[in-house]
Write a structure and sequence with these properties.
The structure is a homodimer. In chain A, strands 1, 10, 11, 12, 13, 14, 15, 16 and 17 form a nine-stranded mixed sheet that branches. An eight-stranded parallel sheet of chain A has the order 2-9-8-7-6-5-4-3. Chain A has two domains: 13-21 and 267-364, D-serine dehydratase-like domain (Lyase, Ornithine Decarboxylase, Chain A, domain 1, Beta Barrel), CATH 2.40.37; 39-246, TIM Barrel (Alpha-Beta Barrel). In chain A, helix 3 (75-83) runs parallel beside helix 4 (98-107) and helix 4 crosses helix 5 (120-133). Helix content of chain A is 29%, strand content 24%. Chain A starts with 19 loop residues before the first strand and ends in an 8-residue tail after the last strand. In chain A, strand 16 and strand 17 (358-364) form a beta hairpin. Chain A is built from ten helices and 17 strands. Chain A is an alpha/beta fold. At the A-B interface, helix 3, helix 4 and strand 10 of A face helix 3, helix 4 and strand 10 of B.
């Protein structure tokens, strides 16, 4: 069943129904330009992570500003973005299981879709599927550079997998995936820089051993919004995967960004919400709970009202505590800054795109729920 | 874009793609019967909360087993369920804002959709919309019985709102909403019983004052899976809103359920997931992260493997720590018990319904994302 939309084009913000996901286009477009501008003069490509937005409209805008393509995490996300016009995708993740591996290979008939691997049997499965589809598949070896998630250990284990890939007739060894996820959210700039310095050492060791084995490593990819300036300065990374910079959520805003040369991004993504109950002068309830703003990385922040805190989320309710003079009445609307943009965007069917206080566009979040 | 489905009817579980949401029908049907059976001999109705499942297929089965109808939290959920054949709905929540109030009134032309209120101006808006739609709208006054969320204070403030409703030409005062949400998750049976005993006192005070004011209070509604036996025994509640009993998530399973007379529910809802990386013998990574299983109420639990714990979720990954002899290889599939069923179901488009190891049906989660 198609649900009634929260907004129509041309509508004033005050008339947009709640909860919905507001994208402030001016701030969004400044963010969109600011990251590639911060890389000018550096010989490094940007391949933004589309898992944050899941939206072909946004991916195509990133590519128009010079991005090499986009990253995704799921082969189903790749399928949606290709249907939306994207031609060059890195699945910055492993793809496991026969139906997914088959789809991945077949997508390479019409687009370039590279993938990561950290397991020899999975590499064999990728080769078999690529042969069946009549394509050559680009495969990167993922190394664990300190994140403790997927990936083989840097050095010899990575070289062994690279050899395995080069021995497969329908695979091409394309390089290394070296993403330090937890480092993105380390608060202090120095600690983040140090975490990436350790990742860079892991990459350096691995590329040296690859060279000694006579295996060409075309590129190294990694980085996120919290750390990308350090990977960009490292001289060992060739592609950056930052994604959240376009939206800038409340969790990323808790990072320290004091160092000169690190560009500041603006909050452009908001959950638009209504005060639905005002049980006390200093406590009101809004209609955006945890089904409207993911709380995995903390509560949303209340925009524009420094004396109001979102203190408690249940499924469909958020409790706001007011410490100052602000007063709300039932029916008032306000903006929340999501704690974590990626899973929040995944709750909605559209971005309600605003400019100068009016709805300019509705962009489908076409890969919402693309879990496979 | 329609995403490729994880499963087809007749498929073996081993062939179902991941991550997807598995509903084990035998356990689900036992849960479905067990709750109404536990109320036999008591003069109390069941009106299960459909916010947990958002699925007309399930709502109709609950009604077929005697439920008076269902509850929802959002007027958009009501619209979806009515389209799916449900005729009697309580929006166990306030509905605020002109478009929603208009839709609510218009839905009453074809179904019975009652609503809660805790604010005089909102009551006026409901009356205006009901008049415009040519309907009479049933309105319950929500009282705060200790949850600290929506609702007016019990006693005189509630009576004042009930009077306001009775004075509106197109509204009918239907009763009291008295839901103690946080009490559902109090671990100890005695503490839960005591929390509901306090709620019952608030209800008793309010119904006494309503009677003294000459206002008939047709029914009192509330309760959840964690506490409903106490509301059922109270003699002041007439309708129970339990919802999670059909699925039984990991958070509810942490409650103590020792008292005789409290029926035990079974886990019937699972996230089916694949081991996508095996970086160490005692640590593997599955393809179900926080976009596949909401972590607002804690991590999912690993079913069937007592020595395996899901210790860390990122957007698309879950890290499993193995404390015993269990060993997984890449490609193995396993079941997770979601930490919290409601927001987890809201991430998926279908329940993959299993019986005897085969897919029996795919039930659309038709109100997924119904936020308005």
């Amino acid at each position: 069943m198609t649900l009634c939309p929260a907004a129509e084009i041309g509508m004033l913000l005050a008339d947009v129904d709640t909860p919905c996901l507001i994208l402030e286009l001016d701030a969004f477009e400044r963010n969109l330009r600011r990251l590639p501008e911060s890389l000018q003069g550096k010989s490094i490509r940007l391949r933004p992570h589309a898992k944050s937005h899941k939206c072909p409209e946004i991916a195509l805008r990133q590519i128009a500003l010079g991005a090499a393509g986009v990253c995704v995490q799921k082969v189903s996300e790749a399928a949606v973005l290709i249907a939306g016009g994207v031609k060059d995708i890195l699945i910055a993740n492993e793809v496991v299981g026969a139906p997914k591996v088959k789809l991945l290979a077949e997508l390479n008939r019409t687009a370039h879709v590279a993938v990561c691997a950290d397991n020899a049997e999975n590499i064999s499965a990728l080769d078999t599927a690529a042969r069946a589809a009549g394509v050559t598949l680009d495969v990167l070896v993922e190394i664990d550079v300190g994140a403790g998630r997927c990936g083989v250990q840097p050095g010899a284990p990575a070289v062994m997998l690279a050899k395995k890939i080069t021995a497969c007739a329908n695979l091409r060894f394309a390089g290394l995936q070296a993403y330090q996820g937890p480092a993105q959210h380390i608060r202090k700039v120095d600690d983040r820089r140090n975490a990436i310095a350790r990742a860079v050492e892991h990459v350096r060791l691995t590329t040296r051993l690859l060279a000694e084995a006579g295996i060409a490593c075309e590129y190294v990819t990694g980085a996120g919004t919290g750390s990308y300036m350090f990977e960009a300065a490292s001289s060992v990374y060739h592609e950056l995967q930052a994604g959240s910079y376009i939206f800038m959520d409340a969790d990323y805003a808790k990072n320290e960004w004091t160092e000169s040369g690190i560009p500041q991004f603006e909050h452009s993504l908001f959950v638009w919400t209504t005060v639905m109950s005002a049980p006390a002068a200093d406590r009101v309830v809004v209609d955006a709970g945890l089904k409207a703003s993911s709380i995995d990385s903390g509560m949303p922040r209340v925009a524009d009202y420094p004396d109001v805190n979102y203190v408690k989320a249940s499924d469909e309710h958020g409790v706001l505590q007011i410490t100052g003079a602000t007063r709300f009445k039932v029916g008032d609307k306000l903006k929340l800054i999501p704690g974590h943009c990626d899973p929040t965007a995944n709750l909605y069917d559209n971005y309600v795109c605003m400019r100068n206080g009016r709805v300019e566009a509705l962009w489908p979040i076409a890969a919402r729920g693309a879990l496979l």
